Amino acid sequence: MTKLNTFEQAVETYEPVLGLETHIELDTRTKMFCGCATAFGAEPNTQVCPVCLALPGALPVANRAAIEATIKIGLALNCTIASWTRFARKNYFYPDMPKNFQTSQYEEPLCEDGYVEVVVDGEVHRVEIERVHLEEDTGKTLHVGGTTGRIHGATESLVDYNRAGIPLVEIVTRPVPGTGALAPEVARAYTAELRDIVRSLGVSDVRMEQGSLRCDVNLSLNKPGEEWGTRTETKNVNSLRSVERAVRYEVRRQSALLDAGERIFQETRHFHEATGETSPGRSKEEATDYRYFPEPDLAVMEPSREWVEELRASLPELPRKRRERLQAAWALGDKDMQSVVNADAVDLIEATVAAGAAPAGAVKWWLGELSRRANESGAELTALAIDPAQVAELQAMVDDGRLNDKLARQVIDGVLAGEGSPAEVAQKRGLEVVSDTGALETAVDEAIAANPAVADKIRGGTHAAAGVLIGAVMKATKGQADAGAVRQIILDKLS
């Protein structure tokens, strides 16, 4: 295998061109073309019927709620809503496709020509949306008996059709050039913004870990001034961090191949969470390979202007406006607010403030110690085993003088280890600040006796030397002394 370039080497020579295709399962009560339930986690093949199993004679009926949700998404993405649109049959064979075709949209999507703007490192990047269309999801194939969960090496494959027919919105961007070395971060920021927009509409839970939001990452490289290169499509990337890593890896891999004079093949690729690498899937089909033709069993859709405007008027506060409101309420500068957005911490901090913490305290913990823990473990911040209410409780204990920051970090250790709430962890581990005057005076007397020269300096008016004695007391009390109280006792005794 060709040795990979570093990312920095790659972007010195080549310009990345991004393209993102995002699939979002809608949170409707029933499937797209039948009345089957859509609840996640049901026993395999218990939410199926003749329509979604494509039994002979079964006819589909379009789900109005799904159409409405798609229009809302299009409006939130600044799209034009079609006045006339229809479904088409996308023909291909795969075991999780009971009909051997997918009911989708082709030349007449429901929403077109939109955009999303994201800010990365102070730069505004506009990602243009080519189309937003509605289709049905496929079933789920489980490959068992192997070690990777993939078909290679498996002893058998099982198909669960519960997901087949769930309403699925596909959002396709136009190519995004000009991102340079920021391409991975722009891809992540766009996916995060899209997730937040859809979540704000209440039409999907957009939980990437459950597959209700799945991202396909397209990437090509070209030298400045040359035509765009051949693209690859990394399929079903299922976390924000992985979107960024997939772009970064493909830039490194493709640049190494081009440097070696080798070809880039237009293909789908699989992303491997454990290594951050991609591997070949199949050669990528063109639209003509799917033999699209209009779906004969469904009528055309003609959303009225009145209906569209009614839906536009019902849109909630969108994420960008919300962030502006929260930034003002939290008294954060642009740079600090961007750090909050980049850390995917807006919801966490808002919930922590709602639970009683001051904004400054909430921001401090989520962007400081907790972000460090997430980075060390390679997890998303939202995946840490601590919730906003617990962070608010922790900050309240600091505010009340029961914990200092050093002790609070030890409390976080316990909460993340599943030992209980901050108060429970502090009690079990004996971590609360020692504020008993008698105990502190004893510790101060011992520190003075052990450091007579320092004590003389303080008696002579050099109060800054008190820091040495405070440090000695903190060491003796394992960091649990109230530093402010200790300082006052020292000055009272020696000044």
Q: What does this protein structure show overall?
A:
- This is Aspartyl/glutamyl-tRNA(Asn/Gln) amidotransferase subunit B.
- Its EC number is 6.3.5.-.
- The protein contains 17 helices and 14 strands.
- It is an alpha+beta fold and 495 residues long.
- It folds into 3 domains: 7-312, no CATH class; 319-429, no CATH class; 437-494, Orthogonal Bundle (Arc Repressor Mutant, subunit A).
- The strands form 3 sheets. It has a 9-stranded mixed β-sheet with strand order 2-5-6-9-1-10-11-12-13.
- Helix 9 packs parallel to helix 10 and helix 16 packs across helix 17.
- It is elongated.
- The N and C termini lie far apart (73 Å).
Distinctive features:
495 residues, alpha+beta, Arc Repressor Mutant, subunit A, 3 domains, nine-stranded mixed β-sheet, 19% strand
List the helices and strands and how they pair.
Elements (H helix, E strand, L loop, with lengths): L6 H7 L1 E11 L38 H13 L3 E2 L6 E4 L9 E4 L6 E10 L2 E14 L3 E5 L11 E5 L6 E7 L9 H19 L11 E10 L9 E6 L2 H20 L7 E6 L4 E7 L9 E2 L10 H9 L5 H12 L3 H9 L3 H9 L4 H9 L1 H9 L10 H12 L5 H12 L5 H8 L7 H14 L1 H8 L6 H11 L6 H12 L1
